[in-house]
Each structure stands twice: as C-alpha cells, then as structure tokens.
Design goal:
Blueprint lengths: L2 H15 L2 H4 L5 H6 L3 H24 L9 H23 L4 H4 L10 H11 L4 H31 L1 E2 L2 E2 L12 H41 L1
Antiparallel strand pairs: 1-2
Helix pairs in contact: 1-8, 4-5, 4-7, 4-8, 5-7, 7-8
Length: 218
C-alpha cells in the first residue's frame, strides 16, 4: 500500500471515529428537534452535502485572497449562495417534510461544521484534503441523523419513512427532544468504545511486530 493511500485511510479513520459531529456534538440541534423521521433525516443529509462540501471547497480555493477580518462573513455568504438551489431542490423532492423541518433547513447555511472547518481546516489545506474532510463530516452526520431518526420513528410512531409498520411497540416519548439527547449520548459512547478497542488492537499489533523484528535480529 502506497504512502498516499495509507495517509488517506488514516485520515478517514481518524475523522470517522473521532469525528466532532459525534464526539463534540456539532450540529446536533436538527438531530434532536427534527430527527424524528427518516424522510426528515434524508432531506437534511442531502441539504448538508450540497451546501457544506462545495462551500468548504470554495473556501480552500480562495483562502489566500481573503482578508481575515471578513473571512467568516465570506464563508457564510458562499454557503448561502449554495443553499438557494439546494433549498429549491429539497422543497421539490421532500414537500411533506418542509413543515416539520421548519427553520432547521435554512439554518444549514450557518451550521457549525462550515464555520469551524472553514477557519480551522479548509483555509489551510489543499482542495483534495478539504473535499475528503468535508465528505466524511457529512457522511458521519448523515449516518447519525438517519440512525437516530429510524429508531425514533419506528419505536415512537410505529412508522418507517411514513409507512405504517405492524409492530406493537410504541414509545411516543422518543419523539421528544430529551430522547434525542439520550440517543446521541449513547451513540457517542458506542463510538468511543469502538475507538478504544481499535486503539488497543493496533497497540498489540505494533508490539507483536517489534517482538518479531527483535527475534529476527537475535
């Protein structure tokens, strides 16, 4: 495996298992408040992709031409420009979700991923790394909101993507915001356990490799 491929895999693993979207709870407001159905989750995930990824790529392309004093406002302006066609697209494809999404759809323009990654990563790195970084962030956000929305819709409403399921379990409390907090906390804990286990396995592998090298030398 080439050094470049190893670097890509390492970066993806780090972004996925230590992703601030889960571990630091960036952009969790829409997950908690409107992540109660899979249709809402898919709509927000698509909107997040079509706004966040191109915005961060544009930031990377113009990073050397911006005055730091107006940089953040410029990032948000670029984000707003990408939201115009994205909002129209979402309204056409998911008209039934518009009312429940409410203000959280246009709030994607100022989501914390764009603000933090624009200033901390996109304005310091090359375009291909920025694309990879933003793509992984959006994928993790999409997995998180879709997983939590499925749990809440199935167990809270007895539906999945608006279709009635023949199940006898019904916990309407899962549709309330506090349940979203609890589920996000459980997901973050699960990711932490997976990360710790992977870290222990890698440490053991490195120790075994060193022992083998020492044995060969001896």
């Amino acid at each position: 495996m080439s050094r470049t491929n190893k670097k890509i895999i390492s970066r993806i693993n780090g972004l996925f298992f230590r992703n601030p979207t889960i571990m630091c709870q960036l952009s969790i407001a829409p997950i908690i408040l409107v992540g109660v159905s899979l249709s809402n989750a898919v709509a927000l995930s698509l909107a997040m992709f079509f706004v966040t990824v191109p915005t961060l790529i544009c930031v990377s392309l113009i990073k050397n031409r911006l005055n730091p004093e107006v940089a953040t406002m410029t990032y948000l302006l670029i984000s707003a420009l990408f939201y115009i066609p994205t909002g129209f697209f979402i309204k056409q494809i998911f008209p039934e979700s518009l009312e429940s999404l409410g203000i959280y759809l246009p709030m994607i323009v100022i989501n914390s991923i764009i603000i933090i990654r624009s200033r901390g990563f996109a304005n310091k790195n090359k375009v291909h790394w920025v694309f990879l970084d933003s793509l992984v962030y959006v994928i993790v956000f999409s997995i998180e909101i879709c997983l939590i929305s499925i749990i809440r819709e199935v167990l809270g409403k007895g539906n999945l993507y608006g279709h009635k399921l023949n199940i006898f379990i019904n916990f309407p409390a899962l549709l309330l915001p506090f349940s979203g907090f609890i589920l996000i906390g459980l997901l973050a804990s699960l990711m932490q356990v997976i990360y710790n286990n992977r870290k222990k396995i890698n440490i053991k592998k490195n120790i075994n490799l060193k022992n083998k090298d020492n044995n060969i030398k001896n």
